[in-house]
Amino acid sequence: MLKDKSLNIRAAASNGSPELLSPAGDINCLYAAVAAGCDAVYAGCNKYGARAYAANFTPEELIYAIGYMHLFGKKLYLTLNTLIKPEEFEGIHDFVKPFYLEGLDGIIVQDTGVIHLLKESFPDMEIHASTQMSVSSSYGVRLLQDMGVKRVVPARELSLKEIKDIKESTGAELECFIHGAMCYSYSGMCLMSSMLGGRSGNRGRCAGPCRQPYSVKGTGVKDSYILSMKDLCTIDILDGLIASGISSFKIEGRMKSKEYVYGVTSIYRKAVDRIIKDPERPYKASEEDRKKLIGLYSRGGISRGYYERHNGPELVTFEKGAYIREDTEKADFEKPRIGVSADFKVRAGEDIRLILSCSNDAGSAVDVSGVRAESAENRPLKEEDLIKQLKKTGDTDFYFENIRINTDGRSFVRVSDINSLRRKALSKLRDKLLYGNKRSM
Q: How many CB atoms lie within 10 A of CB 432?
């Protein structure tokens, strides 16, 4: 059995490791995901997303985020996964267009009408079918493939065997949840929040009534959390999920903190890499990692979901509906940035000149000139002064890892002119690095 599993892991890994897909409820969660080693993030804008109460991104923030992910060779998928009303359809094209032009990697969709609209308007855009569609068979997957869907996020209620059978019979890209909150109802089929309070989960406004205590008449059950599911945690069966051929491992949590995103992503990153590297050696998560996963966020404990069992009381919290606790310690990361090498020329009587390049991209060099340097009347700028000023990159996506100064030792240039040249050069470098990711219409 172990030998078969290791062979399946090797076979699955021959097409590359499974994508590790992290939630990004806001820009700080996106930075956390990148710092922790994600391959991609999924994020919502301020319209059409199934997490209306997440912080979400403004259109301007999302355009920046798409470029930021591409700088690191990673992907961003947009959640457009609510059911759409007739009067909303005409706004979807203009809503998606700027993200498409920027190079958006894919869109997660629930509404079949939206699939048709997107394929018609943006034929080369990847479309992913949301778990909200509750696709639970190869027949449903094939139907979506015929509609042009690239990837399917199947219903969370499927067993690992059912997922493997769908993969083998359709060859489709499958994206499955590996960690986070579970829903008592079939994903995308719950009307409880809508019926009780007028807040539809299929419109991104679920009030979470399943997390409240209930009494059941005639049973003696009183104030029990009989509908509140334990959180999913697959760290102990991750090798089996890899062996099944799942293309993308999805972490739930667009309404959770950057500490959660960083902690959960980093633990699963470590696990996936270890399993792929040495599939013959059984994987067992450390007790420290397991405790950290529970401590970051969980409702009444964790379970392996439906991957190994059909149903059972072990999946329900009963005694607790809200989360146990959330680890609010500061996440140990800084915003990831791209390292840049610089050649800065400052010589009296000549235009100042800055050449920037990325060490991992030989064709990335940009050459920018500025104002003319003057002869210093009193104190010429020293090499260390120029280096110190250049390093002030602020909240940009870059940092200087190597700086070479070419100066005659008798020059002066205003600090504002150095800052202006640095901003111009970094902006030009970013544009050049991202040029190949953008689209036109």
A: 17
Residue 323 belongs to a domain: no
Domain that holds residue 51: 2-318
- What sign for the dihedral angle of Cα 271, 188, 41, 141? positive
Residue 327 belongs to a domain: no
Give how far Cα 235 sits from Cα of 111, 160, 179, 265, 295, Å.
32, 14, 8, 11, 14
Contact 108, 70 (CB under 8 A): no
Provide the 3-class DSSP secondary structure of residue 326.
coil
Q: Which two tokens stand for residue 378?
A: 């009193």
Instruction: Report the C-alpha gap between 345 and 354 in whole angstroms.
Output: 6
Q: With CA atoms as reference, report the closest residue to 113 among 93, 98, 94, 131.
A: 93
**Total number of domains constituting the chain:** 2
**pTM of the entire structure?**
0.92
| pLDDT single digits (tens) 320-340 | 766 555 555 567 799 999 999
pLDDT digit string, tens, across residues 108-151: 999 999 999 999 999 999 999 999 999 999 999 999 999 999 99
Cβ neighbors of 391 (< 8 A, separation 6 or more) are 399, 400, 403
Task: Quote the distance between the C-alpha of residue 71 and its chain's center.
Answer: 14
Same domain, yes or no: 126 and 224: yes
* In a shared domain, residues 207 and 264: yes
